[in-house]
Each structure stands twice: as structure tokens, then as C-alpha cells.
Amino acid sequence: MGNETRRSSATSRRMILASAAVALASSCARSLAAPADRTINIIRAELTPYQFGARGDGSDDTAAFGRAVLEAARLERPLMIPRGDFVLTPPAASSWQFRNIPERTTHICVPLVSGLTVVGRGGRIMTRAPATPLGPLARIFLFGTGLNLSPGALRDILFDEVEFDFADEFSPIHSFTFAFGLTGVDNFEQRNLKLHSSGKRAGRGLFLLNGRDRRQIGCRHKNMIQGHYVHYEWGPIIRDVSFEHLTECMDWDGPAWKVDAKGLRFKNLVHEAQCIDSAGGSDWVISDVTAENTGSVFFLYHKLEAYPTFAEWFQSPEGSFTNRCVPMERILVRNVRGRAAGRDYALKAAETFRVGPNRFKKYPKEIVGVAPPKDITIEDVEIDGGFAAGVNECRNLQMRRVRLRNMDAHDDAERGAALYLHQATTTAQTLRESELSGVVSDVEITNSRGMGLLVDTPSDLTLRNLRIDGYNLNDGAHTRKGLEIRGLGRKSGLVELADVHVGGGAGAGLTDISVRGAAGVVRERLRMRGSVTGDTAGAQPLDLSEEGSAE
After folding, report:
1. Domain total for the chain?
2. Residue 113 falls within a domain, yes or no?
3. To which H or E segment does residue 16 belong?
4. Which of 393, 510, 511 is nearest to 455 (CA)?
5. What's the pTM value of the predicted model, to 2 decimals?
6. Among the residues of 194-339, which ranges form H helices?
7. Phi–psi pair at 393, nearest 5 degrees
8. Are 352 and 374 in contact (CB under 8 A)?
9. Tens digits of residue pLDDT in 443-496
10. Which helix (H) or strand (E) holds 500?
11. Is residue 208 in some structural domain?
């Protein structure tokens, strides 16, 4: 009997050690797969919210979570989230005011501390409304920080495999409820998170101000309002992140620098349906993007509120503009695949993508003195069934290997094309300060419902290896040209056409290639090399004509 007991004990010990080894290997594998420096120590005894009074049954577990977070960080041990529904309730008291606006209070359920690791093991983080209703502009952070105007006030916070469910199971969800609300935090990591609502569409992911070196790996967002809302960020690395049935996904509403994002998937978005939205910054690389049934895939522009520093912006009155705003510079977007991309239900300004100093068609007077985007590269893009894509101003645009098929467009003389490139020409001053230069090459536009390509007021611009096969399929009044270049001579510089073919136009009164410019300068400023042809039956193949006078 004693031998059997000893054999049983030895077997149990081997099973425990084997289980621990498997768990450690799994944790290490996840760490090696992600570009992160930290690993999770799961060998030491686990801490869970249950040890601090949590019930996990839909009761209010806010206080227990607060105690658990402090103790886990103090002991440098991970806080594990086992099975259960852990409900966090925001306090009535505000922690700080967003941009000092009294109505924009912030309410933190669980304050975060440096050195914290939280690991999901089957439990859900949920929320309910407080007993005293909060104002409609309040911000609720399930996990958050106080206001830190300087970066690096907190650091090294990791959430791994945690599930956030914004379902209205316990009460309606406030429209500005975020999983995380951070200011001045370095090295915040989100790994393999599941953020969603199993009820009505609700909840937002990350609210971040003044952060550095964020990591987001393998996270899934579904049936929510917003993925992230970020102002002033340096060095984020984002990998393998998906968004489904959201209104806004990746919203950089303020400047960001050294953004590295790869493996982004967007599907079945609603209302504004934005995938990637920017507001200034430099040195971005965005790659391997898929978008299906969405609004704009990317906006690369800067906002007039994008002050040079975070402190200036945060302390300035809302709506105040500066002509020192941070521009977009040195941006690379590559390997984008889109299907039915470019709808914008809320704003009715449908565009698959746009580059420029301002997001909208009209330029406000305050845009004067603002530098255009610079050194923007867009390559290896395929869109099928999208809406018009455009660049309204750029210095040294590099666009290559772009395929646009079955693109829709308004019957609009300014933007009624599958692809339009034009400058701000609302005033003489904006015209002097604007620029549209660079090289657009290896572009195929097939079956455009409007024009194929529209170029307005170029500077030095080369169009090379351009093929348009099918245009004006909607038979519009303002879209009867396959390739139109207008405003030649308003700015200095040359326009070069090299190996261009246009054909397949539909309707009457068509012109395959039209180049118009100031009196006496069209032939002086236009260079044609190789084959430049139009072959739509009954259409004028090439029209070189004058318009107005040079400015």
C-alpha cells in the first residue's frame, strides 16, 4: 500500500511539472512571436481577483480589482482573470477633465500602476452604469490613469488574452466607454485581446494621450464603436489586428511619429466606417491591409489643431487652429487590398483614400501657411468596387503599382474620377503655397463610373505607364474624359506623360486625353514620351487646349 501511495505521489508530481512546463512553453512561444521584450512569469503562485473579494457573478467587483492590481504590481506577479463575469462600475467623481472642458469629465474604474501584468484565463471584464448618470460627454475608462502631461509617468503595463465584453447585460453602456484610458504611459502592451460587445454595438478600445512605445499584437475588435483614439504618440508597433462591425477603427486624432503597423484587417464597418485616420506626424509604415465593405481605407492628412507639442494642444481652447500644425511627412502605405471600400454614410464624402493637408473638399481660410504633406509613398494597392480616391496636395508623391477596378464617383467636375490629384486653389495665397509633385506610375484603372484620372494644377508631375480601360460608365455630364489634366501653367514645373493609353469610354461627346492650361504654355510645359494614345470609338483621342491666363 505504501509503495502504491509513493508511486501515485511521484506520478502526480510529474504531471504537475509537465503541466507547468507546457504552460511556460506556451507563454514563451507567444512572447517570441510578438515584438515585445517582456515575458509572463506564471510559475509562481497565481493572483486572481477572487483572492481580493471579487465574486465574478455580475456583482460590482470594482474595489476588489483595484486591490488586486495594486498587490500584483507590488509583488511583480501577474494578475490572472479566471472564469467569471467581473463587472466594473465607474465612480461618480471625475479624475480629470479632457482639455479642461467641464463637460468632458473622466471616470476611472480601476487605476493602473507601473509594472502591472494582467493575463486572461477565461473570464470577462464587463461594466455597468453608475447609480448617478454621467453626462453625455464624459469619458469612462475601465482601466485608466490620471492626467500626465509628461511622457513616461507610468510604464511597463501588459494585458494578455483578456476579454472585454461591452454588452448591455447589466445596464445601457455609455457611448464613451473605453477599455483603457492612458496618458503619459510608456511600453503599454496589448496582446491577443478580445474586445467586443455580445449585445448592442458598444464600447471603445484604447484612449491614449502622450504615449511612447506601445505594442498591440493579435487583438480582435468586433461590434464596437471605436478601436483606438490616440493623440501624440511615438513608436507604436501594431501587428495582426482585426476590426469588424465598428464605426471607427484606428483613429490617430492627433500627431503620431514612427508608426509601424502591419497585418490590419477591416470588415463590414458601419456609419462613418473609417479604417485608418491620421492627423499629422512622420515616419510611418503601414502594410498588409485588407478592407471589405468599409468606408475610407486611409486618410493621410493633418489637422489644424495639431500643435507642435502635446502640452500646447491639451491646454489650447477646443477648435483653435495653428498654422504651425504638424504635417504628414515620410509616410509609406503598401500592400493594400480593398473590396467595396470607400463608403461614408455619415459625412457623404465617400473616398477610398485621401492624402492632403485637409480631409475635406473645401479648404478653410486657416489652411494658409500650412505645409503640404511631403514624401508620401503609396504602392501595391488593389481596390475593387470602391469610391473615388484622391490626393489634394503633396510634395513628392510616389504612387506606383495601383489597380482600381469598378470604382464609383460623383458626377462632379472636381472629384468625379476613380483617382483625382489636385491642389488647393481656393485663394491666390493657398495656390502659391501649395504643391502637387512627384511620380505616379504603373496605374491601371478599369471600368470607372466617372473619369479615369483627373489632375488639377500640377507642379512637377510625371504620369508613367498609365492605362485606363473603361470610363464614364454612369454617362455623367461632368465625367466625359478618360484622363483630364487642367490648370497647367498655374504653377511652375513640367508635366510628363509617358506610355499612357486610354480607351473604353461610354457615352457621347467623349475625350480620351484632355490637357488644358494657361494661354501659350500647354505645349511648353507638357512632355509626351513613348506611346500616348486614346482609342475609344467616336471619341476625341487627344485634346490640347488653352484656359484663362497664367497666375
Report:
1. 1
2. yes
3. helix 2-33
4. 393
5. 0.89
6. 310-315
7. 180, 135
8. no
9. 999 999 999 999 998 989 999 999 999 999 999 999 999 999 998 888 888 999
10. strand 495-505
11. yes
Residue type, 210: N
Q: Which amino acid belongs to residue 444?
A: E
- Placement of cell 468599409 in the chain: 294
Structural contact between residues 121 and 160, judged by C-beta atoms closer than 8 angstroms: no
**C-alpha distance from residue 445 to each of 41, 182, 411, 496, 516 (Å):** 54, 44, 17, 19, 21
**Helix, strand or coil, per DSSP, at residue 430:** helix
Q: Is residue 327 part of a domain?
A: no
Q: The C-alpha cell of 45 is what?
A: 503562485
Domain assignment present for 145: yes
| Structural domain boundaries, residue 208 | 44-182+193-212
Give the whole-angstrom CA distance, residue 420 versus residue 129. 47
Q: Where are the alpha helices (DSSP H) in 50-118?
A: 62-75
Residue type, 104: R
* Residue 126 to residue 332: CA distance in whole angstroms: 38
State the chain's mean pLDDT as an integer: 89
The C-alpha cell at 335 is 500592400
Question: Are 284 and 332 spatial neighbours (Cβ–Cβ below 8 Å)?
Answer: yes
- Rounded CA-CA distance 299/273 in Å is 12
Lowest mean pLDDT among 68-82, 154-168, 233-247, 366-380: 366-380
Q: What residue type is 148 in one-letter code? A: N
Of residues 442 and 169, which shows the higher confidence score? 442
* 49 φ/ψ sector (left φ>0, alpha ψ -120 to 50, else beta): alpha
Coil vs helix vs strand at 432: helix
What the block records as the C-alpha cell of 273 is 466606417
